[in-house]
Amino acid sequence: MNSEKLLAEAKEVVRDLSVRELIEASIRNGEGTFSDRGALRVTTGTHTGRSPKDKFIVDTPLTHDIVNWDNNQACTEETFNRLYAKCEKFIKTHRVYVKNVKAGADPSYQIRVKFINEMAWQTVFISQLFIKTDEPSTVPEDFTVISLPDVMADPAVDGTNSETFIILNFDKKVVLIGGGLYAGELKKSIFSVMNFLLPQQDVLSMHCSCNEGSKGDVALFFGLSGTGKTTLSADPHRALIGDDEHGWDDNGVFNFEGGCYAKVINLDKDSEPDIYNAIKRNALLENVTLDENGKIDFADKSVTENTRVSYPINHIENIVRPISSAPAAKNVIFLSADA
After folding, report:
1. How far is CA 168 from the centre of its chain?
2. Residue 339 pLDDT exceeds 90
């Protein structure tokens, strides 16, 4: 897909703003407020978590024999084309924020991703969550993500399950996201892309956190959301490689991202000091409760129990440098309950 052709018809294109400029735009647009710790706080409306029943992969000859359709929902090219046309129409009358980032710390498998976002704060999120690049957003991308929360599907016409949609088209190398604000959909859409691409290159794609001890002993932490992957990986005595998504090839392991996305429900500065201290300027809070002075109530789950913070990995003091990669893992830990 030619994203520049799409952007040429947009009402307004805002490119390559810094994180600080994007945060200022978010405040001007009324998208969020500041907490007392300097982090931007936003709410995500109806969806405060991912919507697996609204996620689809376009079934084409390219994907048909590779994707496990028992665990993934198929949709037709016609469905994708109808929803792409809705997105195209919306962009013609609205401002969008454009940013290029990279996924995959190992240059052998790294992809360039162009995000076209309706919301400035979602562009803060992807700027902090993925690997930063100095390249302008006019540089051609390997994959495009178009996130327009105000574009809704019509299930009766579009063949979706609701007004919300997340559709991956591997032929056109495009992800469409509409009908929801939850930032985790942007993150996980690229994880799905890597899940499709890397196994075909003999790389194991893993949903796990990863850290390394002083003697080069690498540990992987697997588990469902909320079981403690991020918490256990942010160990002051072990260098953080990444908190959520990794690849494993013959040379070792590497992070897909350049940031962290941590749950903060009941966050305590004594038991989780690294995550607590990462909540500062340029961090992004989702669905937490603030009092009139901007103080965060970490125990309040009136909006959702899935309260979140995202921040660049360098908000954690002890990390693997200069890139988030390490030798093969020596320890593989499966978390079966909340740690």
Report:
1. 15
2. no
CB 91 within 8 A of CB 310: no
110-129: pLDDT as tens digits: 999 999 999 999 999 999 99
Catalytic residue list contains 112: no
Smallest Cα–Cα separation from 41: which of 259, 222, 289, 300?
Answer: 289
**Sequence-distant (≥ 6) Cβ neighbours of residue 25 within 8 angstroms:** 14, 17, 97, 120
pTM summary value: 0.95
Task: Name the active-site residue from 37, 207, 280, 301.
Answer: 207
Is 142 noted as a catalytic residue in this protein? no
Residue of 48, 63, 230, 304 marked catalytic? 230
Q: Give the three-class secondary structure for 76.
A: coil
Residue 117, SS3?
strand
d(CA 59, CA 324): 34
Is 50 designated active site?
yes
Cβ neighbours, 10 Å, residue 197: 19
Both tokens assigned to 254: 């590497």
Question: Tell me: the pLDDT tens digits for 160-182?
Answer: 999 999 999 999 999 999 999 99
